[in-house]
Every structure is written in structure tokens, then in C-alpha cells.
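REQUEST ID: PR-0412
SUBMITTED BY: lab tech R.K.
PRIORITY: routine
TASK: structure prediction, single protein chain
INPUT:
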Amino acid sequence: MTKLLFKYLSSRTGSGKTYSLLKVIKPGSRNVIATPRKAVSREIAAMFKDAGFSVKLITGKDGKDDDENSYSNCTKAFRDAIKADDHEIIIVDHSVAMKKISGTENYDLYIDEEPKIEKTVKLKSSLQIVQSILLSLFPDDIISDSHLYYKMTYTREIADLLSTFDDDEAFVPSQKLLELSQFMKSADYEVVIRGSSLKAYKEALKNDPETVKDMKLRFQVVMQPSVLSGYKSVTIMSAGFERSETYFAWHKKVDFVENDEMKPFLRSLPEGQKGLVHILYLSDELDTWADYKRLGYQDFLNRVAMAFDAAFPNTPHIYCVKKAKDEDGNAITPYTWLHDQTGLSQRLDPSAKGINGFQHINVAIHLTPINPATYVYNFKREFFEMQSEDVKMAVSYAAQYQFASRTSYRDYSSTSHVTIIVLDQRSAMALHEMFGEACAGEPEFFDIGLEELQSEKPKAMTV
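STATUS: complete
OUTPUT:
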């Protein structure tokens, strides 16, 4: 199998990866820029318009800040823009650019920030149509635990099953099942189910059918790099790309090479910003939601807020806390941050990828445990062949790094000291590695007065 060739641009946050596009995109060329957020799309559109390029901006309607560039069907708008072929720059969301659209063979694709290429689809195993599909694909009773994942293949029999509608509601395909079938049908996606889950399901169906109604089946859907094969070229711009999930998932099918044309335009860390980043951590080891739920998350947040105020009185900061949900994933009374009423704090998304506008802030407090569910963690480790530390880096530490980088660290003219507070020591050490020469020494323990947070008694920064 011939490998695809994709380019990448990997460097620290704030090094000008996006701005380097202005140096390499030529007038008269055809380009698609894919971004993770509407605000980022608008910023890039303004940048290229100011430089004299013809720009087509396509954003989704959300009922909040829609304008003349907002569309209810972004894919159609993108397809129309490609067909019209009258703009040098087309800017769309990741999800729109990463579809096969005819006519893109003359367009260079630039993906700003790492895209999401994997998702989980959950189905009720008690549905008769789900049972019929699995039995048609896997009639053999011998399902091996050692065969980690089984591929879901779209067949004529499945097509017939999905077209079957009768008076029994159980036979009406759900939206999730229809979505899954579309992924199965496409050569640009791979759908798999864990062997042990399939084995447990089939054994329950055979020996104790009553237990099946309480089971849920999880299917992992992975976008294949072939979905981007219609573009003239592909460049992914992301901090730490060589340790990203996309790299691990695709490297067997893609030759990744650095974009040597863009690389010379990246900015190195100014001398005046070296040694300005201070990293503090709140716990020696506690880094999971289970840990902080057991500890009492709201009480923990209150203690952090009070300790922070004592150590850094009246200090503006960005922060994140976990979204409050019940066991079924429904939103409940949100967790609170004591500084919300002071006007000093600004809550951001836990990854804050691509968000700008906070370069005047010198403190970032990341209080959200970011760990994938066990089944997701195992999937990334087994299917993508990632080491445990690679999964942590790609999921947890990368998000914390993006969040912490929203501060004055991004401002090249700033010589202010930056303080980053994270939950645990391992996260702090990972950030210390990622910020590199910007750091002002080893991470320190920030004592908020909870003995449960310490396994030993390190030298601590106390209030």
C-alpha cells in the first residue's frame, strides 16, 4: 500500500504557526484553512483580508453571534465555494474541511490545531436490529479475547436490515445506528468493536438473554487519512504534533514530513521571556475525577481559591473547573469558583485550544481532571499502539499546555512572570518539559492545607 504524504508544522504555542501562512500562501493560489473554532476562523479571515487576499469565510449558525458568513449547512456552502473557485482562501471548521469534496485537487489544505479523528458511538444492545446486525457479521460463537478488536463491515444484509421498518419500534433504526452505518459504509472510516465486549455480549445473548437489556455496546470510529487524499497537499499545524493522537493513529498510512517552507518563519522564544514561567501543583499524585470526587470537589475548589487569594491577592487569572454532570451525563448545579464575583477571573474551556485575547493575564489555574474513560484509554493504547505516557501526553498534558499558553506567555513584548497552577505533580513535570527554557526552575508544591494531597512532605510553597 502506497503511503500518503502529509506535512506538519510542530512548535511551541505562540511561535507564529498561523502567521507563517501569510509568508507561504501566494496570491492567485487556492487554499483551504481549517480551524477548531469560529473565533479563530474570523481572526484568520481578517488577517488575510488585511493582506489583500480574497477570502471566503464559512462558519456555522449557532444563534449567538451569527453574521453574513454563517450558514446552516456549512458543507453545502463549502462545496459551492469550491465549485465557484473564485477565492484564494476558504476558511471552514475542521469537520467541514475533513470530508471528501470533489474539486479540491487544486487546493492546499492547512489544518490549524490537531483535528479530532476518533469518536465513540454507544448503542443499546437490547435493540433487535443491533442483535441482528452483530449476528449477521459474527455468526461464529468463537470470539477471542486475544483478538482485541473486530472490524464492523457494511454488507448487503445490513443494508436490508436498516431498510426494514415495521410496526415494532425496536426495528426502527436510531439516529446513532444510522450514523454508525454511514461510517461503516465509507472507506474513509474504520469502525471496530472490542473483542472482549463482543464476546461478553454474544455469551449473554446465548446463555442469559435477559441480561442483554442492561448492556451497552461501544463502537470506536476512526477517520482514515484517505479522507484528505483529494487535496493538492495537507499541512497540520499543531504544538507537539509528533506526540499527538493523530500522528500515532495515521503514521502507518502516512509519511509525515516537516513543512520546510513554513518552518523558517516560526519565532523562537525571546531572551526576555526565558525563565519567567513558574509551575505549581496541588497534589503529589491525585489526577483523576474519582480522586477529587472522593475528596469533595467543591470543597477542594474553595480551598484552592482561598489559598490562591492569600498568596496572590487581587490577581486577575484564567481558570477551568469540571462541568458538573450526574451519573447519566446530564448537567446539574455547576461547580463554583469563589473569585467569579470579583471580576478578576475568567473561566475557559479546559483545553482552550485556539482561544486568544488573554495575553494580559499572568496566571492560569487548571483544575479539571482530564483523563479519558478507561475504555477510551485502552483503545488508544491498544489500537493506536500508544504507550501509557503517550496517551497522557496527547490527551491530558497537551490540553493543560494549551490552556496555560493563553496567558502573557503568548505576548512577545511581555516580560511579566507567569504562574501556572495544575492538579498534580506529573502534570507539572510534563508542563515543565513542554515550556522548556521558559521555565523558572522545577515545579513547586502549592500547599492548600489538605493532608490527603501529599504522599510525602516536599518543600512547599505555602500561604
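NOTES: The chain has three domains: 4-114+228-265, 126-214, 271-461.
REVIEWED BY: pending
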